[in-house]
Amino acid sequence: TTLSVKNPPSGVTYDGKVGMSLGADVRFGERFQIQPGIHYINSVTAFEATGSEVETGEVVHKSLKIKALAAFNLIDKGQFKLRVNAGPAYDFLMSAKNKDTKVSVKDDYKNGTFFLQGGLGVDFFFLTADLGYAQGLSQTFAGEGAPDSKMAGMYFTVGVVFGTGKK
Prior knowledge:
Layout: E1 2-6, E2 12-25, E3 32-49, E4 55-76, E5 80-98, E6 112-124, E7 127-136, E8 150-160
Antiparallel strand pairs: 1-8, 2-3, 3-4, 4-5, 5-6, 6-7, 7-8
C-alpha cells in the first residue's frame, strides 16, 4: 500500500512510501461477486515543507479500512480466475505520527476518508492477488488550509483463498 496526498497545503509536498495491509475479504457469488472486506492499514507518507527553512520527514498512518466492492470474473477457468473490482471504501484513521519524533499529528487530519477504489485480481489455485488504485473522495486535512486535499494511492495484496472460491 502506498498513499500520497493530492492538492496538499501550500508549500508542502507528499510522496507515498511502501506500507502494509492485513485483513480479509469475503466474496459472495460466482461470476459476479460482492466483495466486502476489512483491513488494518499501516501506510507511510514522506513530506517536505518549504518555508523559512525546509522540513522533511515521514508520517505513519494507521487506519482501519472497510470496503464493499463489486467484482466480475473476466476469465473463470476453474483453477484460474481474472477479475475486475470496484467500489467504495472508508478508512477510519486510528493514528498519524511523525516517524522520527513519534509526535502525534492526527489532529491535522480528518478522522476518516471515503475512497473509490478499483483494480484487477487474479486467483491461481489457492492463491489470490489484487492490484489497484484508491482515490480519496473526501478532504484529507482538518481545518480549511487545504480544502481540496485528497489521499490517493496504489495497493497490491496477496492472499490465500479458502472455501469454494478455490475450485
